[in-house]
Amino acid sequence: MKFRRKYLSYPQVQLAIVGAFLVAMILFFSIVLLFLSATFSQLIALGREVGLPSHHVYFQFINMQTDHILSNLILVFLIVGTFGTIFFIWFSHSLIGPIVTLIEYLKRSIILLKDGQEVPPIQFRKSDYFQDLGVLINALFKITMDRSPQLKSNLIPKISDDG
Q: For a tag site, which of 53, 88, 94, 121 has the least CB within 10 Å?
């Protein structure tokens, strides 16, 4: 397996995906923290209701549990956040790859058509999703060129120099 150094091939989209994941994770952990806080508040209120003094071992136990759960929750958040970010960058690479390849392919195709050259078929990486997109684009180019031999002479002047 070939190691890739650049997994952010379309950073604005991939980082938006990672950002959405992190926002969802923060929301989830905030809700968990809210429910835990409410539960421990009820336990403290219960201790006060039965008349336990504020220095009672019961309250010390509740505070110890609160601190322990909070520190573990932060640790879990950091671990899941790190591995989730890595996973979503890796996963989005296979989703974004065909789009980046398609953009570059279309830019190259315009140049080739302007120069009167034949456009080679598009190829995606084997690990990319949307393999059928490449097949459809290749079929479209082939049908278009086969049906309209004068396409090159008609199409080239109509393509703007802006790309």
A: 53
